């Protein structure tokens, strides 16, 4: 009984192991390569799969999801002989598990080396400034070369990114100085433009203010002229409507003469020759009033009232032809005798206000 029991136990254990090897569960987004006697047979997809135990062997499981592989910094020489360190990141996905298993020994290492060599070829044809400003061009070039080379490996390269581009320390210092100088230049230009715009606006404002001021003064002058013209017109119409005679005008003329003597700067002023005619007319008017006063006074008070004496108008002077040697000599028209020679500037009456 004991040998039979031992055999049964061995058979149960072998059956259990065979059952375990027969049933293969593959996770989602994964695949497995099955070999029979060392030769590729089939690819197991996600789910429950059955294989022949002890004959079929699952070689490896491959993740079909997109993978991210960062590569360490690589020294690269640019066209202007500057060494820069570049970090790259590759996004790839296995599309054919069989090709990824049998076409290349280690596709991760192969992608890394291909990335380094391609990056050196692309950066070697560019200077430092183009390298720093042409990330998209570099990424597109790397992706094109890697996708073409890894296609036969059953791998699709989705994206290639340059994580960092580090130039030498001395170049970084120079770039910082240049950037600082550019910023200072732009700040100075903006400040100058702001001051220029402010001066332009200030000048335009002053110009508009002057124009408005001139227009206001012109309108004020026009209104003043219109007012003076209306006043003169009113006075003129009042004079004509009142039918003023020569005596009243002469009296108004004499009342205006004291205005000429006003002011501290007036030391000497000239009376026109028409003043004599005005005085003569005014004297005649006073004589007429005085005569009427005598008649009225004799009838009322029985006595005579002395009339104020009015000086007679000065006789007008005429000029004889000017003698070049002695100058003009006025002649008295009443006596006909020549008066002493006087200065031609004294042809008008001169009255000193003081």
UniProtKB/TrEMBL annotation:
Its main location: membrane. It is a single-pass membrane protein. Keywords: Membrane, Transmembrane, Transmembrane helix. Residues 331-354 have a biased composition (Basic and acidic residues). Residues 21-179 form the Band domain. GO terms for cellular component: plasma membrane; side of membrane. InterPro entries: Band7/mec-2_domain (IPR050710), Band_7 (IPR001107), Band_7/SPFH_dom_sf (IPR036013), Band_7/stomatin-like_CS (IPR018080), Stomatin_HflK_fam (IPR001972). Belongs to the band 7/mec-2 family. This is SPFH/Band 7/PHB domain protein.
């Amino acid at each position: 009984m004991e040998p039979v029991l031992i055999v049964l136990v061995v058979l149960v254990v072998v059956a259990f192991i065979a059952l375990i090897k027969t049933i293969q569960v593959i996770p989602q987004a994964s695949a497995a390569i099955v070999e029979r006697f060392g030769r590729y047979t089939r690819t197991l997809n996600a789910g429950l799969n059955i294989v022949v135990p002890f004959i079929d062997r699952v070689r490896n499981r491959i993740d079909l999801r997109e993978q991210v592989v960062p590569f360490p910094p690589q020294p690269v020489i640019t066209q202007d002989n500057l060494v820069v360190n570049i970090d790259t990141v590759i996004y790839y996905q296995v599309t054919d598990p069989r090709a990824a298993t049998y076409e290349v020994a280690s596709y991760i290492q192969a992608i890394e080396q291909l990335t380094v060599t391609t990056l050196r070829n692309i950066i070697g044809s560019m200077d430092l400034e183009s390298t720093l400003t042409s990330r998209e061009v570099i990424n597109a070039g790397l992706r094109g070369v890697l996708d073409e080379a890894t296609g036969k490996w059953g791998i699709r390269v989705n994206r290639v990114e340059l994580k960092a581009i580090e130039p030498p320390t001395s170049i970084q210092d120079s770039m910082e100085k240049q950037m600082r100088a550019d910023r200072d230049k732009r700040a100075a230009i903006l400040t100058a433009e702001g001051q220029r715009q402010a001066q332009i606006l200030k000048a335009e404002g002053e110009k508009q203010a002057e124009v408005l001021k001139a227009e206001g003064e012109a309108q004020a002058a026009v209104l003043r002229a219109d007012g003076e013209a209306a006043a003169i017109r009113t006075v003129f119409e009042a004079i004509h409507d009142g039918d003023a005679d020569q005596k009243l005008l002469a009296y108004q003329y004499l009342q205006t003469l004291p205005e000429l003597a006003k002011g501290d700067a007036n030391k000497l002023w000239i009376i026109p020759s028409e003043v004599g005619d005005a005085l003569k007319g005014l004297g005649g008017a006073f004589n007429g009033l005085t005569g009427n006063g005598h008649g009225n006074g004799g009838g009322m008070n029985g006595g005579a009232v002395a009339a104020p004496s009015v000086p007679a108008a000065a006789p007008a002077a005429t000029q004889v032809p000017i003698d070049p040697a002695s100058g003009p000599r006025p002649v008295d028209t009443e006596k006909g005798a020549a008066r002493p020679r006087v200065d031609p500037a004294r042809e008008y009456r001169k009255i000193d206000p003081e």
